[in-house]
Please model this.
Amino acid sequence: MTDLKNRRPLSSRDTALAARITRALARRGVTPNQISMASMVAALLAGACFWMGGQTADAYVAGALLIFAAVFCQLRLLCNLFDGMVAVEAGKGAADGPFWNEFPDRISDILIFAGVGLGVGDPALGWAVAALALLVAYTRELGVNVGLAPDFSGPMAKQHRMALLTLAAVVALVEPYWGERGTVLTWALWISIIGTVLTVLRRAWRIRAGLLG
Model:
Protein backbone atom coordinates (compact mmCIF):
# COMPACT_ATOMS: atom_id res chain seq x y z
CA MET A 1 0.00 0.00 0.00
CA THR A 2 1.32 3.46 -0.90
CA ASP A 3 0.20 6.82 0.45
CA LEU A 4 -0.60 8.74 -2.72
CA LYS A 5 -0.97 12.01 -0.82
CA ASN A 6 2.67 11.77 0.30
CA ARG A 7 4.04 11.00 -3.16
CA ARG A 8 6.70 13.26 -4.63
CA PRO A 9 5.58 14.89 -7.93
CA LEU A 10 7.97 13.80 -10.71
CA SER A 11 7.68 14.63 -14.40
CA SER A 12 9.84 11.60 -15.24
CA ARG A 13 7.02 9.39 -13.97
CA ASP A 14 4.91 10.35 -17.00
CA THR A 15 7.42 9.30 -19.66
CA ALA A 16 6.84 6.33 -21.95
CA LEU A 17 10.23 4.86 -21.04
CA ALA A 18 9.44 4.91 -17.33
CA ALA A 19 6.13 3.18 -18.00
CA ARG A 20 7.82 0.45 -20.05
CA ILE A 21 10.44 -0.20 -17.40
CA THR A 22 7.74 -0.32 -14.73
CA ARG A 23 5.80 -2.95 -16.67
CA ALA A 24 8.97 -4.96 -17.26
CA LEU A 25 9.84 -4.94 -13.56
CA ALA A 26 6.30 -5.95 -12.61
CA ARG A 27 6.28 -8.82 -15.13
CA ARG A 28 9.51 -10.17 -13.65
CA GLY A 29 8.04 -10.19 -10.17
CA VAL A 30 10.21 -7.39 -8.79
CA THR A 31 8.45 -5.86 -5.80
CA PRO A 32 8.46 -2.19 -4.77
CA ASN A 33 10.05 -3.11 -1.45
CA GLN A 34 12.91 -4.89 -3.21
CA ILE A 35 13.53 -1.79 -5.31
CA SER A 36 13.53 0.36 -2.16
CA MET A 37 16.08 -1.97 -0.59
CA ALA A 38 18.18 -1.76 -3.75
CA SER A 39 18.27 2.03 -3.34
CA MET A 40 20.20 1.58 -0.09
CA VAL A 41 22.67 -0.70 -1.84
CA ALA A 42 23.17 1.95 -4.55
CA ALA A 43 23.69 4.59 -1.85
CA LEU A 44 26.19 2.39 -0.01
CA LEU A 45 28.16 1.89 -3.22
CA ALA A 46 28.03 5.61 -4.01
CA GLY A 47 29.29 6.51 -0.54
CA ALA A 48 32.02 3.87 -0.73
CA CYS A 49 33.17 5.17 -4.13
CA PHE A 50 33.33 8.74 -2.84
CA TRP A 51 35.28 7.54 0.19
CA MET A 52 37.76 5.34 -1.67
CA GLY A 53 38.17 7.93 -4.42
CA GLY A 54 39.46 10.37 -1.85
CA GLN A 55 41.91 7.86 -0.39
CA THR A 56 43.68 6.65 -3.53
CA ALA A 57 46.74 8.41 -4.91
CA ASP A 58 46.11 7.08 -8.42
CA ALA A 59 44.33 9.79 -10.42
CA TYR A 60 42.88 7.30 -12.90
CA VAL A 61 41.43 5.10 -10.16
CA ALA A 62 40.07 8.17 -8.39
CA GLY A 63 38.44 9.32 -11.63
CA ALA A 64 36.84 5.93 -12.22
CA LEU A 65 35.50 5.89 -8.67
CA LEU A 66 34.01 9.36 -9.14
CA ILE A 67 32.22 8.16 -12.27
CA PHE A 68 30.86 5.14 -10.41
CA ALA A 69 29.79 7.38 -7.51
CA ALA A 70 27.84 9.62 -9.89
CA VAL A 71 26.19 6.61 -11.53
CA PHE A 72 25.19 5.10 -8.19
CA CYS A 73 23.73 8.44 -7.02
CA GLN A 74 21.51 8.46 -10.09
CA LEU A 75 20.70 4.77 -9.64
CA ARG A 76 19.50 5.59 -6.16
CA LEU A 77 17.10 8.14 -7.66
CA LEU A 78 15.91 5.65 -10.27
CA CYS A 79 15.12 3.18 -7.49
CA ASN A 80 13.15 5.93 -5.76
CA LEU A 81 11.22 6.46 -8.98
CA PHE A 82 10.43 2.86 -9.80
CA ASP A 83 9.53 1.61 -6.32
CA GLY A 84 6.58 3.99 -6.35
CA MET A 85 5.66 3.30 -9.96
CA VAL A 86 5.68 -0.46 -9.49
CA ALA A 87 3.61 -0.01 -6.33
CA VAL A 88 1.01 2.36 -7.80
CA GLU A 89 0.98 2.15 -11.59
CA ALA A 90 1.60 -1.62 -11.62
CA GLY A 91 -0.56 -2.26 -8.55
CA LYS A 92 2.13 -4.17 -6.63
CA GLY A 93 2.01 -2.18 -3.39
CA ALA A 94 2.26 -3.98 -0.05
CA ALA A 95 0.95 -3.15 3.41
CA ASP A 96 4.43 -2.20 4.61
CA GLY A 97 5.11 -0.12 1.48
CA PRO A 98 4.99 3.25 3.27
CA PHE A 99 7.81 2.10 5.57
CA TRP A 100 10.02 0.98 2.69
CA ASN A 101 9.16 4.12 0.76
CA GLU A 102 10.62 6.39 3.44
CA PHE A 103 13.09 4.51 5.66
CA PRO A 104 15.64 3.62 2.95
CA ASP A 105 15.84 7.25 1.84
CA ARG A 106 17.03 8.31 5.28
CA ILE A 107 19.66 5.56 5.34
CA SER A 108 20.73 6.44 1.80
CA ASP A 109 21.34 10.10 2.62
CA ILE A 110 23.54 9.11 5.55
CA LEU A 111 25.54 6.58 3.54
CA ILE A 112 26.21 8.93 0.64
CA PHE A 113 27.08 12.10 2.53
CA ALA A 114 29.12 10.30 5.17
CA GLY A 115 31.09 8.75 2.31
CA VAL A 116 31.68 12.12 0.67
CA GLY A 117 32.83 13.61 3.97
CA LEU A 118 35.29 10.78 4.52
CA GLY A 119 36.52 11.10 0.96
CA VAL A 120 37.37 14.79 1.29
CA GLY A 121 38.92 14.29 4.72
CA ASP A 122 36.17 16.13 6.62
CA PRO A 123 33.81 13.53 8.13
CA ALA A 124 32.06 16.12 10.29
CA LEU A 125 31.03 18.08 7.20
CA GLY A 126 29.55 14.98 5.60
CA TRP A 127 27.66 14.08 8.76
CA ALA A 128 26.35 17.65 9.01
CA VAL A 129 24.79 17.38 5.55
CA ALA A 130 23.35 13.96 6.42
CA ALA A 131 21.78 15.35 9.60
CA LEU A 132 20.28 18.29 7.75
CA ALA A 133 18.92 15.95 5.07
CA LEU A 134 17.11 14.08 7.83
CA LEU A 135 15.76 17.37 9.14
CA VAL A 136 14.45 18.28 5.68
CA ALA A 137 12.52 14.99 5.56
CA TYR A 138 11.30 15.45 9.14
CA THR A 139 9.95 18.92 8.34
CA ARG A 140 7.96 17.51 5.42
CA GLU A 141 6.52 14.77 7.62
CA LEU A 142 5.74 17.28 10.37
CA GLY A 143 3.59 19.22 7.92
CA VAL A 144 1.74 16.04 6.94
CA ASN A 145 1.22 15.08 10.58
CA VAL A 146 -0.44 18.40 11.38
CA GLY A 147 -2.83 17.99 8.46
CA LEU A 148 -1.11 19.90 5.66
CA ALA A 149 -0.19 18.71 2.19
CA PRO A 150 3.33 17.28 1.90
CA ASP A 151 5.87 19.93 0.95
CA PHE A 152 8.57 18.68 -1.42
CA SER A 153 9.96 22.13 -2.15
CA GLY A 154 13.66 22.95 -2.37
CA PRO A 155 16.06 24.52 -2.95
CA MET A 156 17.79 21.37 -1.68
CA ALA A 157 15.29 18.52 -1.68
CA LYS A 158 16.47 14.96 -2.29
CA GLN A 159 16.68 15.17 -6.08
CA HIS A 160 18.54 18.48 -5.84
CA ARG A 161 21.09 17.00 -3.42
CA MET A 162 21.74 14.06 -5.73
CA ALA A 163 21.97 16.33 -8.79
CA LEU A 164 24.49 18.52 -6.99
CA LEU A 165 26.65 15.56 -5.98
CA THR A 166 26.47 14.05 -9.45
CA LEU A 167 27.55 17.34 -11.03
CA ALA A 168 30.31 17.78 -8.44
CA ALA A 169 31.61 14.28 -9.12
CA VAL A 170 31.77 15.00 -12.86
CA VAL A 171 33.50 18.35 -12.37
CA ALA A 172 35.95 16.75 -9.92
CA LEU A 173 37.17 14.52 -12.76
CA VAL A 174 39.15 17.46 -14.17
CA GLU A 175 39.95 19.00 -10.80
CA PRO A 176 43.57 17.71 -10.69
CA TYR A 177 44.38 19.90 -13.71
CA TRP A 178 43.59 23.17 -11.97
CA GLY A 179 43.24 22.63 -8.23
CA GLU A 180 43.59 20.44 -5.19
CA ARG A 181 41.64 17.18 -5.17
CA GLY A 182 38.58 17.22 -2.96
CA THR A 183 37.91 20.94 -3.29
CA VAL A 184 34.89 20.57 -5.59
CA LEU A 185 33.22 17.94 -3.40
CA THR A 186 33.96 20.00 -0.28
CA TRP A 187 32.23 22.98 -1.85
CA ALA A 188 29.35 20.71 -2.85
CA LEU A 189 28.93 19.73 0.80
CA TRP A 190 28.91 23.38 1.88
CA ILE A 191 26.37 24.26 -0.80
CA SER A 192 24.27 21.32 0.41
CA ILE A 193 24.40 22.65 3.96
CA ILE A 194 23.30 26.13 2.92
CA GLY A 195 20.61 24.73 0.64
CA THR A 196 19.22 22.28 3.19
CA VAL A 197 19.07 24.97 5.87
CA LEU A 198 17.11 27.19 3.49
CA THR A 199 14.85 24.26 2.61
CA VAL A 200 14.10 23.52 6.26
CA LEU A 201 13.36 27.17 6.96
CA ARG A 202 11.14 27.45 3.90
CA ARG A 203 9.14 24.35 4.77
CA ALA A 204 8.87 25.37 8.43
CA TRP A 205 7.58 28.80 7.39
CA ARG A 206 4.97 27.17 5.16
CA ILE A 207 3.86 24.89 7.98
CA ARG A 208 3.38 27.82 10.33
CA ALA A 209 1.56 29.83 7.65
CA GLY A 210 -0.66 26.85 6.90
CA LEU A 211 -1.59 26.41 10.55
CA LEU A 212 -2.38 30.09 10.93
CA GLY A 213 -4.62 29.94 7.85
Q: What stands out?
A: The chain has a mean pLDDT of 93.
